[in-house]
Amino acid sequence: MKGETIKKDERLPFASSTKLGWVVAGSTAFPVENLEETSVSYLRVNTEELIQYFWELEQIPTLSSFTKEENLCEKHFIENYASNDKGRYSVYLPFKAERQELGDSKGLAFHRFLNLEKKLLKIPNVYQQYKDFMSEYLSLGHMEKVNENSVDVKNEHFYIPHHHVIKESSLTTRLHAVFNASAKSSSGVSLNDWS
Asked: CA-to-CA distance for 172 and 97, rounded, in angstroms?
């Protein structure tokens, strides 16, 4: 419906404009000798134009409706994804070209880890699940051990604070770690500020 309506008289049907042409509908107030309902339909159509217009309505738009950021994200994915021999896909984090320097992140992450460990020591079964989760995370290559004496430790590594979450309804892994990449480093910049 396009919203355009023509009504000449309250006693007559009205006409409404649609994308496929005009539609006439409504009742009349004229006296009728026979009280049974009467319907009248009249259709005048140029079928070629109607079919052409129908296909235009159904056609998928060729223009992208992505924002500039979404287009950049799509481009980054296409240029940076890879799959390994096990069929798993990976993609490099999309860091901003111009970004502030990250500061020291180890202090905050280590402080939060000590607090987490203090809590977990009071619940040994959860602590064991946490250690198992972290061991698996390390073995899968999602994180890596850092050589403290390496020159690039401060410039190339970011320590992400984390905590555990237990999902009671899970049938497999009940404990998960939640990483906080929004935690600020000593310069006031977080890892999320880079992406």
From this structure: 40
C-alpha separations of 7 from 13, 22, 25 in Å: 7, 13, 10
Could you read off the pLDDT of 106-162 as tens digits, one per residue?
888 999 999 999 999 999 988 998 999 899 989 988 888 877 776 565 556 788 899
Given 3-state DSSP classes, what are the helix, strand and coil percentages for the chain, each rounded to the nearest 5? 30, 15, 50
Burial category of 103 from C-beta neighbours within 10 Å (exposed 0-12, middle 13-18, buried 19 and up): middle
Domain boundaries, the chain: 1-31, 67-98, 105-145+156-193
Residue reference for tokens 């490099």? 92
Question: DSSP string of 70-103?
Answer: HHHHHHHHHHHEEE-TTS-EEE-----SS-PPP-
In the block, tokens 């060729």 appear at 62
Model pTM score: 0.51
DSSP 161: P
* Sheet strand arrangement including 14-18: 5-6, 14-18, 21-25
Strands 5-6 and 14-18: antiparallel
